[in-house]
Amino acid sequence: MPQSVDTHPLRTTVEDFVAGLRELENELITKERIASYMAATVLRPEPLARYTHWRDSFYTRNLIYRDELFEVMTICWSPGQKTAIHTHNGQLGWMTVPQGEVSTHEYRHVRCNAPENQNVIGLDCLGGATEIELARTGTVTCAEGSGLVTVDKLHTIHQIENTGATGCISLHVYSRPFDSCIAFDLEKQRCYRRSLSYFSREGVLLQPEG
Asked: For residue 33, is the peptide bond before it cis, meaning its omega torsion is within 30 degrees of 0?
């Protein structure tokens, strides 16, 4: 029987958080189990300082931990920064916000001219369409101390945006890890597979400071 991890919100460390996730790997990983864990295991900005890097020209993805089942990272957003509209390859994902506020704009696929590339086993989409219609179904705001945003096999297309006036830190857990996604450019009417990279890995910068 694994030893219980102390996850008091005033003193939870990154190591505590990761250790608790690793204990959960011993049983079936579900959206509800990880959501409950993240709601109860609060990481404040101070323990995340090693994984906190802002840049004016782009948001940064900072890897904290990764194994075959979990990927844990912070994303740091300057005001106005946002992702492309993108899918999550049918994976499970959870997001909380230790500092600031972000908005998640949710979409559903209506139609495209490459329907044979939709709902491929293990993937949401293969891309390649040149006529795309998505419907925006709503926006969920996630802020420090309030809320948890999830993605699953039914809710996979979204865009995250820092609509606030200050820098924001979001904490993300994914299962399983993924290195690419399908991005949608509605203005140019194209969707394509986009490779993902980290700005830092386990506290070490991988990209130039400039």
From this structure: no
Distance CA 107, CA 124 (A): 13
CB under 8 Å to 34, separation ≥6 — which residues?
A: 21, 24, 92, 94, 173, 175
> Is the residue at 130 inside a domain?
yes
Q: Where are the beta strands (DSSP E) in the chain?
A: 60-66, 71-77, 85-86, 92-99, 101-112, 132-143, 149-151, 157-161, 168-175, 180-185, 190-195, 200-201, 204-205
206: in domain: no
Q: What contacts 47, CB < 8 A, 6 or more positions away?
A: 12, 13, 14
Residue 168 covered by a domain: yes
- Give the CA radius of gyration of the chain: 17
Burial class of residue 169 (count of CB atoms within 10 Å of its CB; 0-12, 13-18, 19+): buried
Q: Hey, which residues does 60 pair with through a beta bridge? A: 76
Here the tokens at position 24 are 């959960």
Pick out the chain residues at pLDDT < 50: 1-7, 9-10
Across 113-136, b (16+ Cβ under 10 Å) vs e yields eeeebeeeeebbbbbebeebebee
Residue pLDDT, tens place only, 4-14: 444 454 468 99
